[in-house]
């Protein structure tokens, strides 16, 4: 189920980027949002953000060598939790979105 959500999210994200921004491959993008799913087995993260004032679901692949920052410390993908507020920088590579950086900037407001 999580994989299906990630694939759908990635597809929606790519469609939104292509349609709204005319994004070229390799151009870095940044979003801030709430982590809604972390799947260490497939090295993916889903973040709920906003695009043009509307909810936007973004699914990205996380490379093994990516260091995730949180409060001045380095974390692993497995340390991310649903509800974490993150700043995510990603690029589009062929048919996937790949995280270039992830910074935990807080927890979801109650």
Secondary structure elements and pairings:
Blueprint: H1 2-21, E1 29-39, E2 44-51, E3 54-61, E4 68-70, E5 73-75, E6 84-93, E7 96-107
Parallel strand pairs: 4-7
Antiparallel strand pairs: 1-2, 1-6, 2-3, 4-5, 6-7
Structural account:
By secondary structure, the protein is α+β, with helices and mostly antiparallel strands. 18% of the residues lie in helices and 50% in strands. The protein has 1 helix and 7 strands; from the N terminus they run αβββββββ. The chain has one helix at residues 2-21, and strands at 29-39, 44-51, 54-61, 68-70, 73-75, 84-93, 96-107. A 7-stranded mixed beta sheet has the order 3-2-1-6-7-4-5. The N and C termini lie far apart (27 Å). Mean pLDDT is 83; it is low at 15-22.
Task: Fill in the keyword field for this structure.
1 helix; 110 residues; alpha+beta
């Amino acid at each position: 189920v999580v994989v299906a959500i990630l694939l759908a999210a990635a597809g929606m994200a790519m469609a939104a980027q292509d349609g709204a921004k005319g994004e070229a491959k390799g151009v870095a993008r940044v979003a801030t949002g709430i982590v809604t799913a972390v799947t260490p087995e497939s090295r993916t993260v889903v973040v709920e953000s906003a695009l043009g004032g509307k909810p936007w679901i973004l699914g990205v692949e996380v490379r093994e060598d990516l260091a995730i920052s949180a409060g001045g410390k380095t974390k692993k993908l497995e340390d991310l939790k649903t509800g974490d507020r993150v700043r995510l920088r990603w690029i589009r590579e062929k048919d996937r979105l790949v995280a270039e950086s992830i910074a935990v900037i807080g927890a979801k407001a109650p």
